[in-house]
From TrEMBL:
<keyword id="KW-0285">Flavoprotein</keyword>
<keyword id="KW-0560">Oxidoreductase</keyword>
<keyword id="KW-0521">NADP</keyword>
<protein>
    <submittedName>
        <fullName>NADH:flavin oxidoreductase</fullName>
    </submittedName>
</protein>
<dbReference type="InterPro" id="IPR044152">
    <property type="entry name" value="YqjM-like"/>
</dbReference>
<feature type="region of interest" description="Disordered">
    <location>
        <begin position="104"/>
        <end position="131"/>
    </location>
</feature>
<feature type="domain" description="NADH:flavin oxidoreductase/NADH oxidase N-terminal">
    <location>
        <begin position="4"/>
        <end position="355"/>
    </location>
</feature>
<dbReference type="GO" id="GO:0003959">
    <property type="term" value="F:NADPH dehydrogenase activity"/>
</dbReference>
<dbReference type="GO" id="GO:0050661">
    <property type="term" value="F:NADP binding"/>
</dbReference>
<dbReference type="InterPro" id="IPR001155">
    <property type="entry name" value="OxRdtase_FMN_N"/>
</dbReference>
<keyword id="KW-0288">FMN</keyword>
<dbReference type="Pfam" id="PF00724">
    <property type="entry name" value="Oxidored_FMN"/>
</dbReference>
<dbReference type="InterPro" id="IPR013785">
    <property type="entry name" value="Aldolase_TIM"/>
</dbReference>
<dbReference type="GO" id="GO:0010181">
    <property type="term" value="F:FMN binding"/>
</dbReference>
Length: 366
C-alpha cells in the first residue's frame, strides 16, 4: 500500500490518509465573518476529492485579527453554528475537518489580494465599502515596509495580550462546537504570533520581547490555552515559519524552531506544520518543489521529543507526496495551490498510486 494512503492515528483521531488541504484564505465572507456558499462548495469539493484532512483558511479569533474584512471568523457563536454543516459534510466524505485559528497582527486590515493587498486605515474603506481598523502589533516601530504605509497600529499592552490568549481559547471552544476535530494554531507568515517570535518585528522590552523565552511566551501561552480546552483525544497542530529567510539581521531561524518544537511537544502539540517566511519583504526563500521540506525534516529529526511534522510548499505530484511520507521526511503532506487547480487531487493520487483506487471514490461517482 502506498505510504500516502496509510492511516495517520493521532490521539483518538484516525486520519484516513496523509494528504491535507493546506489552509487557504478565500476572502469570500462579508464583514460578519460568516462562511458563505463559496466555503461550503470549496471545502466540500476537496473533501469529496479525497483529502484526509480539510483545513479551513486562516480563521480569525477576533475581528481585528482578520487580514481583510472578508476573512472567515470564529469569534462568535453564529459563526460556529454556520460552520457546522461544513464540518459535517467533510466527515460524511470520510475526511477530518480542521480549523486554522489565526490573528493577523499588524498585517491585518488590508484590501484583498486582487484589490492590491494595501493597508486600510480605520477611516478608509476597501472597494466593497468595508471599513478598516486599528491593528495590533508587538512593536509598531518595527513594522516592515510592506506595501503602503501602515497608519493605525496599536502596541499590544499586557491587557491586549491577555485578550488574545482568551480569544484563542474561546475560538477553540467554539471550533469544537462547530464540529472540528483538529485545531491548528497559526504562528507563521508574519502574522501576530510570528511577529512576537521574530526579532525582526518584536522589539519589546517587557516579558514578551528580547530573549527566546520572552519572544516565544505569547505563542506558548496561546497554545497552552487551546490545548487546555481541546479534548485530550483530539489533535492540536501548529503552523510555524521554520525560518524568516533573512540572513542580514537578527531573525527567526531553524535552530530556534527546533528549540521551540521541544517546548510545543511538552505543551501537547501533536504536529508541526512547517512553512516559512512572510515576516519581511527582504526575505530570500529558495522556492521550487519541496523547498520547505528540509525545515520539516530538521524539526522531525532534531527535536528531543518525538513530534510529527507536516511538509508543505511546491508539492504537486502524487509520487512526490508519496516519497515524502515513504522516506520518513514528513508524516503529513499539505497541498495548497495544486488543490486549487485540482480539487480531486486525493483521488488522482489514489488513481496513480493504488490498484483499488475506485474504492476511494464517492459511491455516487464509482
Ligand atoms: C495561502 N496560504 C495560507 N497559509 C496559511 O497558513 N493560512 C492561510 O489562510 C493561507 N492562505 C492562502 C491563500 C492562498 C490563495 C494561497 C495560494 C496560499 C499558504 C498555503 O497554505 C501554502 O502554505 C502555500 O501555498 C504553499 O503550498 P503550495 O501552494 O505550494 O502547495
Amino acid at each position: 500500500m502506498p505510504a500516502l494512503f496509510s492511516e495517520l492515528a493521532i490521539r483518538d483521531c484516525e486520519i484516513p490518509n496523509r494528504i491535507a488541504v493546506s489552509p487557504m484564505c478565500q476572502y469570500s465572507c462579508g464583514p460578519d465573518g460568516l462562511p458563505t456558499e463559496w466555503h461550503r462548495v470549496h471545502l466540500g469539493s476537496r473533501a469529496v476529492g479525497g483529502a484526509g484532512i480539510v483545513l479551513t483558511e486562516a480563521t480569525a479569533v477576533e475581528p481585528r485579527g482578520r487580514i481583510t474584512a472578508h476573512d472567515l471568523g470564529i469569534w462568535n457563536d453564529e459563526q460556529a453554528e454556520a460552520l457546522r454543516p461544513i464540518t459535517q459534510f467533510v466527515r460524511e466524505q470520510g475526511g477530518v475537518p480542521a480549523i486554522q485559528l489565526a490573528h493577523a497582527g499588524h498585517k491585518a486590515s488590508k484590501t484583498r489580494p486582487w484589490d492590491g493587498n494595501d493597508p486600510i486605515a480605520p477611516d478608509e474603506t476597501d472597494p466593497d465599502g468595508a471599513t478598516g481598523w486599528e491593528v495590533l502589533s508587538p512593536s509598531p516601530d518595527a513594522y516592515p515596509p510592506f506595501s503602503g504605509d501602515r497608519p493605525a497600529m496599536r502596541k499590544a499592552t499586557q491587557d491586549d495580550i491577555e485578550d488574545v490568549i482568551d480569544d484563542y481559547r474561546n475560538a477553540a471552544e467554539r471550533s469544537l462546537e462547530a464540529g472540528f476535530e483538529i485545531a491548528e494554531v497559526h504562528a507563521a507568515h508574519g502574522y501576530l504570533l510570528h511577529e512576537f517570535l521574530s526579532p525582526v518585528t518584536n522589539h519589546r522590552e517587557d516579558d514578551y520581547g528580547g530573549s527566546f523565552e520572552n519572544r516565544t511566551r505569547l505563542f506558548r501561552e496561546v497554545t497552552a490555552a487551546v490545548r487546555d480546552v481541546w479534548p485530550d483525544g483530539k489533535p492540536v497542530f501548529v503552523r510555524l515559519s521554520g525560518t524568516d529567510w533573512l540572513e542580514d539581521r537578527p531573525s527567526w531561524d531553524i535552530d530556534q524552531s527546533v528549540r521551540l518544537a521541544d517546548d510545543l511537544a511538552d505543551l501537547g502539540v501533536d504536529l508541526i506544520d512547517v512553512s516559512s517566511g512572510g515576516i519581511h519583504p527582504a526575505q530570500k526563500p529558495p522556492g521550487g518543489p519541496n523547498f520547505q521540506v528540509p525545515l520539516a525534516e530538521a524539526i522531525r529529526e532534531e527535536t528531543q521529543t518525538e513530534i510529527a511534522v507536516g511538509a508543505v510548499g511546491g508539492i504537486t505530484e502524487p509520487a512526490q507526496a508519496e516519497a515524502l511520507v515513504r522516506n520518513d521526511r514528513a508524516d503529513l503532506v499539505l497541498v495548497g495551490r495544486e488543490f486549487l487547480r485540482e480539487p480531486y487531487f486525493g483521488l488522482r493520487a489514489a488513481g496513480e498510486l493504488e490498484d483499488d483506487a475506485p474504492a476511494k471514490w464517492p459511491v455516487q461517482y464509482r
